[in-house]
Amino acid sequence: MVELWFAIASVMLATYVVLDGFDFGAGALHLFVAKTNQERRQVLAAIGPYWDGNEVWLLASGGVLFLAFPRVLASGLSGFYLAIFLVLWMLIFRGISIEFRSQLAQPLWRAAWDGIFAVSSSVLPVLFGAAIGNLVRGLPVREDGWFSLALFTDFSAENPVGLLDWYTVSAGVFALAALAAHGATFLVWKTDGPVHDRSRRAAKVLYGVVGALWPLLTIATFAVNPAMLAALPARPLALVAIATAIGGLAAVVLGLRKGRDLPAFLGSCAFLVGMLAATAACMFPVMLRSVTDPAWSLTAYNSSVATESLWIALRWWGIGLPLAVLYFYIVFRLHRGKAVAATGHDGY
Amino acid sequence: MSDPLLWHRLQFAFTIVYHYLFPQLTMGLALLIVVMKGIGLRTGDQRWDAAARFWIRIFAINFAVGVVTGIPMEFQFGTNWARFSRIAGGVIGQTLAMEGLFAFFLESSVLGLLVFGERRLGRRGHFAAALALFVGSWLSGYFIVCTNAFMQHPVGHAVDPDGLLRLVDFWAFVLNPWALAQYAHTMAATVVTASFVVAAVGAWYALQPAHLDQASRFLKVGVTAGLLSSIAVAFPTGDIQAKLVAQYQPITLAAMEGRFTSEKMAGIVLIGQPNLAEQRLDNPIIVPGVLSFLAYGTFHSEVKGLNEFPKDQWPDNIELLYYAFHVMAGLGTLLILTMALAMVFVLSGRLLGQRWLLWVLLLAFPFPYIATTAGWMTAELGRQPWLVHGLLRTADGSSLTVHSGTVLFTLIGFTGLYFVLGLLYLFLVGRQIHLGPAEVPHG
Questions:
Q1: What is the ipTM, given to two decimal places?
Q2: Would the CB atoms of A92 and B88 count as touching at under 8 Å?
Q3: B288 phi and psi angles, rounded to 5 deg
């Protein structure tokens, strides 16, 4: 039961990254791939129907962590206090920039929101990547299960650790590159004309960068968390996940080259899911790794609520999740085809 | 300054009060939009669709601010109330996750269709979108009220040996009688807020005069819904809520009324000032017997005073609790009277000619927001000193690893950010009102 909820939380978080990831990426790139007002509105029209629903996956995943692993949620969120508020404020700016931009036809108003949209969409992937980097590297979790993390210490990735060091910043930069590449493949799929062509060029370059950085980050991960990679051979799920990521990467390259837009985007999704799943599978059962003493780590086993509660939650979750998937299917279906820039008050 | 608990409480109070300014209009307006679309569908009168279209524009701006100010709320359970989250997550995590799964996914999928999809969906389809958004937003309200109801009156749980709570009876938790009463009371209040806003915009146009046809439509809908909902807030929903407080939180009832000694035939306090030092109510005006009757159903029931209870169980800010409750109840009464008076003129078809009453309706719209806020202050201050009533004290629920300066820093950050957000909101909504219902192009 605990294993199942660990898997549910991981899958929902991975879904969040894949979905909100494409609109983060589109936001990070839109100043470069969309030059005119109409082109920018085309980007917004492409992500407009989805971004809010995508963000709900973050709330829903948080809710799942809350109900199944309250110790992890409580310790993690309070330990990362300032970083969390930075994320929240960025999410506020970002949501508002999407929704308010086209309320006014004033060019400066729109340019300002375009800038805020680009900055917040670029900072958030770095923060999320750094957060995963922190989980992999480990945190100063104390014997009582709490911790408090400095913004930075000596950038060495060794105890005493801080939020930002060479490893977590690298993870953040990698996340930005990966999500920007992911967003580019989404725009390739959902747009036409100049935005499509520029996104395609951007996707090729960015996926080249991602392909080059990935082995480097893997070596770095081996350096900061040897136990995690040592566990790899004995974790068949992790091996499957890595194979998925490699297959996804191949699909992206082939799809982009042959102009098959949807397979390229799906390959990009598979790459992200594969990487996250491999990370989760290698970390299991550790959720908040303690660098102070490995025995103090918060794990799925020592942090979950009673099995009884988990059974109750599984019943309604089994109804709610298919509903959510159905809504997403309907929204994607209604907005199938290339996104068309709205005019006037008609859309984003 | 050095006690982080105060700052944790202030930050949560500030962010939740600010956030709830938006969902209360979202939820109430969702219902009124369904009503307008429904009348349009039934009568075939296009002007009702135009009315709905205008309010959907404002709804979209309001919804966006509600969404972005809502995201921090869920996270603050973990960041600021980590010990509470650790202890109660196994129970309240369930309703919070259900809100995402059952309500937010529905709302976020339908919103774009409601705002931009009128042409594509057709009349019936667009009505269905409005209905779905109404269902989604009211569902989300239930999950949140249910979460709060557990903190007010915990049911369906068991306590583990290590002190953590776990859920054992799902239906008892989800159908908590406190949640049902509080939900009805809260939802009726959201309709009051939306009705006063709709009526105020109608009055604004009527006074200019501009858009007179839509103005009288807004006034008719606003006043009718406003009268029905403001009565429903008091009776039966407020009455049921008060009886639950009397039954399960007698100390809170005593503090709400500034009552220090027990009494049969207890009177209800209209005005007066609680004096904690002397343990009495100064300068009171009291209607005898009414409190006993309202709380317990008979005039001879005894209402307990604060002195019957140990002081460490008293709410920690009795003055604020007392005033919040009386502001809520007093404003609630005035809101009923305002709408009842306006209804007389609506029924006789003479409202557009009564400039004084239009002015009253125009200037009255902030008061439902104030009454709602005071109502939530009553509920939350009345729950003190408990975070989960009888199980966990507020002082034992905050994050220990976060310093007071850090919380003060983020509180100041929120103050600045929300000030800017409020300006943008008022500017954009004001602009929509200025553009008016006729200028809104077909979406």
A1: 0.92
A2: no
A3: -65, 145
**Is position B168 within any domain?**
yes
The answer as to whether B256 is a domain residue is no
CB-CB: which of A305, A315, A321 is closest to B89? A305
What confidence tens digit (pLDDT) does each residue in A208-264 have? 999 999 999 999 998 999 888 888 888 999 999 999 999 999 999 999 999 899 999
Amino acid at A219: I
Domain boundaries, chain A: 2-334
The two beta strands, B268-275 and B280-287, are antiparallel
| Domain-embedded: residue B9 | yes
SS3 assignment for B100-158: HHHHHHHHHHHHHHHHHCHHHHHHHHHHHHHHHHHHHHHHHHHHHHHHHHHHHCCCCEE
Residue type, A22: F
- Rounded distance, CA B286 to CA B263, Å? 13
Q: Does residue B150 form part of some domain?
A: yes
CB B180 within 8 A of CB B150: no
A103–B contact, CB cutoff 8 A: yes
Query: Based on the number of CB atoms within 10 Å of its own CB, is A252 exposed (0-12), middle (13-18) or buried (19 or more)?
Result: buried
Predicted TM-score (pTM) of the model is: 0.94
Using a CB-CB cut-off of 8 Å, the residues of chain A touching B166 are 305-306, 308-309
Structural domain of B19: 4-233+323-439
Contacts of B80 in chain A (CB under 8 A): 78
Contact: A345, B79; criterion CB under 8 Å? no
Enumerate the β-bridge partners of residue B165.
B159
> Using a CB-CB distance cutoff of 8 angstroms, which residues of chain B are in contact with residue A5?
none
Q: Count of A–B CB contacts within 8 Å?
A: 215
Q: Are B155 and B176 in contact (CB under 8 A)?
A: yes
Closest to A95 (Cβ–Cβ): which among B64, B85, B104? B64
**Contact status of A91 with chain B (Cβ, < 8 Å):** yes
Structure tokens at A22: 């494409």
Residue from the list A48, A71, A81 with its beta carbon closest to the beta carbon of B112: A48
* Count of domains observed in chain B: 1
The answer to whether the CB of A125 falls within 8 A of the CB of A24 is yes
